[in-house]
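One such given next:
>
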Amino acid sequence: SEYEVVLASDGPTGLEKAAAFEPELIVSDHMLPGFNGITLCQRIRESEQGTRPRIIILTARSEDEVKLEALRAGADDFITKPFSTLELKTRLANLLANSRMEREIAEQNQVLQTTIVKLRQTESQLVQAAQLSSLGSLAAGIMHEINNPVNFLLSAVHCLQQDLQDADEDVRDTASDIKNGLERIRDIIADLRLFARGGTTTTRQL
C-alpha cells in the first residue's frame, strides 16, 4: 500500500485516533456520525500539541459557505464529490509533500538560528580578541565548517526546485524559503570573511 491507513467510523473515534496515532494527513467525510467532519477538524486543531496534520474534507455539497466553513475550521483542502481517484491521490501527494517540506524547514530553521546565535557570539568574542591573527584563524575555521554544507544544501535545493516546476505553489514557495534562508547564512559567512581580512562588515537584517 502507498499509505499506512487507520480507519475511524465516526467523528469521536476519528478524534481519538488522531490523538493516538498523530497522522501526517487526515481525510474526513463532511457527514459523519457523532459530529461532522468540520467539527472534527476544529477539535483536532484545538488539541494540537506541536504536530499539525494536513486535513482534507470530502463533501457532496458544493456551496461556497460549506467550503469557507471548512477552511475556517482549519481544513487544508476539500474535495467535492464525485471525484476521481487521480484527483484524490494528487491532492494527498501535494499536501504530504508540503507537510514534509515545512517540517524540514522548521528543523533547518532551528539549525540556522542556532548557527546564527553561535556566529554572533563568536563574532563578539573575535572583536574582543587581542591578536588579529587568532581572530582570523578562528573565523576561517568557522567559515570553512559552515560554508561547505551550506553550499551543498544550496545545490540540493536548486535541483529540488527544478523537480518542483509542476508542483503545488505552496510546495514551490516552501523550497524558495529554504533557499532564501541558506543564502542569508552564506551572506553572513561572506561578511565574516571580509571582517577577518581587515575589512568592514555590512549589517544584515536576520
